[in-house]
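mind reviewing this stuff:

——
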Amino acid sequence: MRWTKEQEQVISLRGRNILVSAAAGSGKTATLVERIIERVTGTGSGEDAPIDIDRLLIVTFTRAAAAEMRERVGAAIEERRVKHPENMHLQRQALLLHGAQITTIDSFCLLVIRDYFHEIDLDPVFRVAEEEELTLLRHEVISDVLEEAYEAGEQDFLSFAQNYGGRHQDLKLEDYILRLFQFSESCPWPKEWLLGLCANEEEREDVFLGEWMEKVIWSIKRRLKDALCLNLYL
């Protein structure tokens, strides 16, 4: 395969961190496979000694991508093994490929936890919950928290429930809480992000003085003006 200048640079660079950004279908996987093969075989422009494939950690976002990567690496190793049948290192790589860490990031993290459960005082027979189980657990926890809040009877919570909840059920309230929770999970530090929201609200003396409120008021005035003009034409 003929590589572009940028691809050759990705394949051959050593001794530094590399961040590669490229569009879909531009050959990122093929380039990464070639870089891996050069590291495993010790070929290419670098002066690295050959390493075993199971000494590398190769992570992807999806299982399908991990399976494709494993297949491509295996095919590349097999191609070189056929050309050099006397190379025992390549013969060894074909055997080690089955235990190589070519996987998703969450699967790798799960493997680390299982291998070192004793370091974090975790029950070794733990398992990852299914999404349906997690949904039921979330709703159960929210129901318990809301019940405790109602029993405490703090005015701030009661006002919140009255403004955002339903008349007879708390389904809307639960939905708002879940959506906020799920959004916070997209942040690097969810708890700190949530606490930061509370801090920002406490620091604000008048909610109507905020920059975002000025934009809301401007938008409302514009809509009212448009509605007034429409009414005049009618």
About this structure: The beta strands are 57-60, 101-104. The first strand starts at residue 57 and ends at 60. The mean pLDDT is 85. The two ends are 70 Å apart (CA to CA).
